[in-house]
């Protein structure tokens, strides 16, 4: 394994003859997540972040872009369909991120496409690809996939068209050489009753954020359900959100799960 400030090369056997392929892992910029992923995310992969409202999905995606540019010199684009840039900027400041400064340096770029103003296609794919090439973009985050659902509702025969359009967009991001992260909503996030949507199988990586009851309050947690082509932990980890943003406590077990397990053993 070869380590570098911004990436790790992991050598994996891929054939019966023992041929070796180097898999480049990039650091996420989210404290604790690289440990859960055993090094980071595979470069040029597609990752879906899903979960209930208030679990930290948008924040995780924003940190992926911000710290990717700030700490690892990987320029990024954040596409927002639900939050205004003003709200994002204010929220980010409260969590230790100066988006304006990084944008002024040409390290991160924001595209705002409010759902309420949709009249056609997502936006000019050619324009986005030109921006990626011109600005040496390595990371792209989309918040959220609901954008495609408004354009291609999953009824009246549009279910497969919705999936096709998301796949086309993902393929364009891969061809452009970016690591693509998208956010989606999941209505059932109880890990014991978790149901899967068709989009959960399309992305190469699938990370679930949830809340677990602990007495009179809820505890935020995260688990990595899959990352195609690389090893990772399958455990459930507690999440904290504070002045320094979102952190995964990779060396701890959620108190709520401990209490639940103890209850089963009584």
Any overview of this molecule?
The chain is an alpha/beta fold and 266 residues long. The protein has a single domain (30-265), classed as 3-Layer(aba) Sandwich (Rossmann fold). Helix content is 32%, strand content 30%. It is built from 9 helices and 13 strands. The chain has helices spanning 33-36, 57-72, 85-94, 99-104, 125-134, 146-151, 159-175, 198-202, 255-265, and strands at 2-3, 7-13, 20-26, 41-42, 46-51, 75-80, 108-112, 137-143, 179-185, 205-214, 217-227, 237-242, 245-248. It has a 9-stranded mixed β-sheet, with helices on both faces. A 4-stranded antiparallel β-sheet has the order 1-2-3-4, with no helix packed on it. A hairpin with a 2-residue loop joins β12 (237-242) and β13. The protein is globular. It starts with a strand and ends with a helix. Residues 11-17 have low confidence and may be disordered.
């Amino acid at each position: 394994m070869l380590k570098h400030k911004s990436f790790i090369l992991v050598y994996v056997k891929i054939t019966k003859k023992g041929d070796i392929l180097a898999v480049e892992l990039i650091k996420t910029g989210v404290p604790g997540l690289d440990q859960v992923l055993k090094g980071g995310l595979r470069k040029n992969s597609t990752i879906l972040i899903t979960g209930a409202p208030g679990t930290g999905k948008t924040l995780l995606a924003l940190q992926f872009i911000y710290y990717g540019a700030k700490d690892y010199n990987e320029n990024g684009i954040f596409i927002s369909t639900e939050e205004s840039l003003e709200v994002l900027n204010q929220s980010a400041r409260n969590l230790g991120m100066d988006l304006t400064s990084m944008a002024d340096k040409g390290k991160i770029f924001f595209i705002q496409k409010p759902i309420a103003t949709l009249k056609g296609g997502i936006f000019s794919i050619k324009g986005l690809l030109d921006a990626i090439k011109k600005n040496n973009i390595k990371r792209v985050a989309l918040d959220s996939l609901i954008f495609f659902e408004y354009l291609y509702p999953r009824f009246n025969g549009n279910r497969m068209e919705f999936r096709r359009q998301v796949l086309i967009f993902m393929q364009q991001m891969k061809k452009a050489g970016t690591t693509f992260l998208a956010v989606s909503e999941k209505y059932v996030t109880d890990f014991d009753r978790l149901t899967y949507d068709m989009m959960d199988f399309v992305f190469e990586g699938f990370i679930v954020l949830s809340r677990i009851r602990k007495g009179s309050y809820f505890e935020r947690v995260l688990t990595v359900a899959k990352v195609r082509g690389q090893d990772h932990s399958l455990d459930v980890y507690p999440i904290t959100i504070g002045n320094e943003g979102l952190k995964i406590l990779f060396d701890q077990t959620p108190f709520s799960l401990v209490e639940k397990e103890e209850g089963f053993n009584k």
